[in-house]
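Lecture notes, part 5. Sequence design as translation. It can be helpful to think of inverse folding as translation between two languages: the language of shapes and the language of residues. The source text, in structure tokens, appears below.
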């Protein structure tokens, strides 16, 4: 079965129509067509049998001019008397011909003499030869006299009406399917973190309109919750930053009277954790979709690697221009690459952009992450002291933020072992 709703709906419409017309055509051809042809053929053979009876009852040595004339004028049969030569060899039987079978059956039943018939071809005439005692009777009859010739007209009208009805059904069905397709496109765009189509609004049947209205309400509720969450966290961040600034000022006023180095480090850690958590919470905030050039973006990463004395190589297959949320995408890749820079000497990034999907593979030669821990590292505040994470002394939010951004785009991140011996991170998002 096809996967798309439009194709399935067409099958629902076409299949019963084809089945119904097939049954009608079979019944018509099997009953009506055969019955009419049977009666017409019986009448023609009965006339031929009458002519043979007259020839046997009133033999004429000089010919049968009057019989030939009467047959032509009254019976619409063109007859002629041939010498007593052998009948032609039987011709090939047509694959599908009711006339050939019924006419042969009637001649055998009513006349019961050797005969030869020719019903093959597009000629309007049917030739019949009957072997008599010392002659051969040849009869030409119009095909319409022995055959129901209006059947083709019936089939043409039936097929034509079916095509007209099918065209009307397809046009109506397309109008009914279009609102569902628009709803699916809007939902897909929202799931990828993109703005819905500007002209989207509930259309179509009542059920489709209700689904569209429910989607709009759901989208507005989610956007409102994200906005409230971001606003609240921004306020909390501002208040906590004020307190941390006050702590720093008080430590500065203390001077050298006490050892404040440990306290200052605690404040720095608290500020770092605050910024990391706020960035994680803001990763779902709405951002307009824009265009990112992978070549320029990878060039910046290469400069960053040069400052850290790390080897960096990149490659791009396909179109370098992608459509994503620029800031979120930059944070996604930067988190992963910075993680590799921290624990590896050499990092390679390979991007492949085709069929609406972007796949970025990041390989390094660092210590890697144990297989059983590759799912755990994406949890917020989870840190691997012996392996690696966003930063060993940080908040443990780097990979969590990266995964959250990838899924916000409608994609995902997978970790594996790199051929270089370290960690491989594969990012796949629609772009």
């Amino acid at each position: 079965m096809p996967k798309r709703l439009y194709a399935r709906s067409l099958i629902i419409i076409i299949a019963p129509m084809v089945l119904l017309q097939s049954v009608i055509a079979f019944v018509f051809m099997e009953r009506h067509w055969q019955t009419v042809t049977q009666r017409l053929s019986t009448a023609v053979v009965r006339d031929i049998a009458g002519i043979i009876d007259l020839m046997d009852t009133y033999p004429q040595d000089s010919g049968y001019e009057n019989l030939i004339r009467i047959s032509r004028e009254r019976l619409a049969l063109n007859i002629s008397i041939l010498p007593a030569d052998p009948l032609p060899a039987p011709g090939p039987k047509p694959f599908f011909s009711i006339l050939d079978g019924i006419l042969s059956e009637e001649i055998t039943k009513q006349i019961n003499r050797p005969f030869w018939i020719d019903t093959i071809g597009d000629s309007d005439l049917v030739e019949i030869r009957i072997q008599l005692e010392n002659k051969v009777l040849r009869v030409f009859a119009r095909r319409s006299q022995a055959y129901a010739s209006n059947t083709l007209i019936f089939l043409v009208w039936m097929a034509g009406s079916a095509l007209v009805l099918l065209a009307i059904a397809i046009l109506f069905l397309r109008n009914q399917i279009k609102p569902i397709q628009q709803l699916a496109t809007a939902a897909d765009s929202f799931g990828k973190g993109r703005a819905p189509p500007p002209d989207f609004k509930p259309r179509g049947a009542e059920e489709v309109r209700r689904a569209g209205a429910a989607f709009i309400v759901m989208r507005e509720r989610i956007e409102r919750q994200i906005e409230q969450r971001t606003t609240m966290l921004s306020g909390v961040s501002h208040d906590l930053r004020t307190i941390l600034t006050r702590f720093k000022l008080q430590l500065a006023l203390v001077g050298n009277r006490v050892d404040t180095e440990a306290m200052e480090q605690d404040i720095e850690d608290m500020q770092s954790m605050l910024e990391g958590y706020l960035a994680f919470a803001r990763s779902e905030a709405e951002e307009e979709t824009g265009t990112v050039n992978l070549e320029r973006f990878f060039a910046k990463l290469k400069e960053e690697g040069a400052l850290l004395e790390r080897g960096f190589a990149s490659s791009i297959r396909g179109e370098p221009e992608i459509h994503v949320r620029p800031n979120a995408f930059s944070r996604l890749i930067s988190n992963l690459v910075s993680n590799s820079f921290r624990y590896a000497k050499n990092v390679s990034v390979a991007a492949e952009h085709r069929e609406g999907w972007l796949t970025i593979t990041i390989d390094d030669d660092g210590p890697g992450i144990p297989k059983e821990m590759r799912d755990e590292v994406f949890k917020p505040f989870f840190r691997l002291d012996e392996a690696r994470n966003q930063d060993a002394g940080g908040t443990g939010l780097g990979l969590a933020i990266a995964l959250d951004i990838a899924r916000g785009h409608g994609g995902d991140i997978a970790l594996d072992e790199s051929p270089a011996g370290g960690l491989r991170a594969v990012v796949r998002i629609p772009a």
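The translated text above is only one of many valid answers, since several sequences can fold into similar shapes. The domain at 290-430 is CATH 3.30.565.10 (Heat Shock Protein 90).
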